[in-house]
Write a structure and sequence with these properties.
By secondary structure, the protein is α/β, with parallel strands linked by helices. The protein has one domain: Purple Acid Phosphatase, chain A, domain 2 (4-Layer Sandwich). It is built from five helices and 17 strands. A hairpin with a 4-residue loop joins strand 3 and strand 4. Helix 2 packs parallel to helix 4.
Length: 220
């Protein structure tokens, strides 16, 4: 994990796209989109039905690695409001074990506006923690330090004749937009105007790798 500072606090970024906040003993993730595959299956588009278990296993690994006691999901935790009800038994058991072990908060996103706490944890529209607002979608007009998800940012660069894509955090002096943590999620280019409008000026993409945090300035 690699440290970086935001709003006077120290965070550690994981290659998988989570942030650990030692001062709060909290792990933060965004856009899990659990049960996305089963949602598509209902529409006749069949995908391997292992996305939820893979995502929750990755969360469990991050919790074990960091020793986090709290967890905040920054919205779109399920691909739709009924995703919790469709979880297969192994994924449900894993999730309920995690929510029983941790102080777990689901922040509501646009994909799961009617989310119910059938899988444990508590539900909130947004949370203020140590002066930092945790919500699903960035509010550019809010001057307070803010962490959000929603856009699934990815940095795309050309390297040796081919395009390489990596999930990234997009940061500015007052905003952090998280990458999607889910195993079955796409991504929006970090240079996209909608992302840059949301974070304001002096933005950069941060790509965590095993031993460093790569920083790429993002021009409007």
């Amino acid at each position: 994990m690699v440290p970086f500072s935001f709003a006077g606090e120290t965070f550690f970024a994981t290659p998988g796209g989570a942030l650990f906040w030692p001062e709060q003993s909290a792990l933060l993730v965004a856009d899990l989109h659990l049960e996305k595959a089963s949602w598509f299956a209902r529409l006749g588009q069949f995908l391997p039905p292992y996305d939820s278990h893979a995502t929750l296993t990755a969360i469990g690994d991050a919790v074990e690695q960091t020793g986090a006691a709290r967890l905040f999901c920054l919205g779109d935790s399920f691909h739709d409001s009924f995703g919790c009800d469709r979880l297969p038994a192994n994924a449900r058991d894993l999730l309920t074990t995690l929510t029983a072990k941790l102080d777990w908060t689901w922040i509501v996103g646009n994909h799961d506006p009617g989310i119910a706490d059938h899988c444990g944890g508590r539900i909130a529209k947004e949370v203020e923690l140590a002066g930092i607002i945790l919500r699903h979608e960035a509010v550019r007009s809010d001057p307070r330090p803010e962490m959000s998800g929603h856009y699934h940012p990815k940095l795309r660069v050309h390297l040796r004749g081919r395009q390489v894509s990596r999930r990234c955090f997009v940061v500015s002096p007052t905003k952090v937009i998280f990458p999607a943590f889910g195993a079955l999620t796409g991504g929006l280019d970090a240079h996209h105007p909608e992302i840059l409008r949301s974070v304001g000026s002096n933005a950069a993409a941060l790509v965590p790798v095993s031993d460093r945090l790569l920083r790429f300035p993002l021009a409007a």
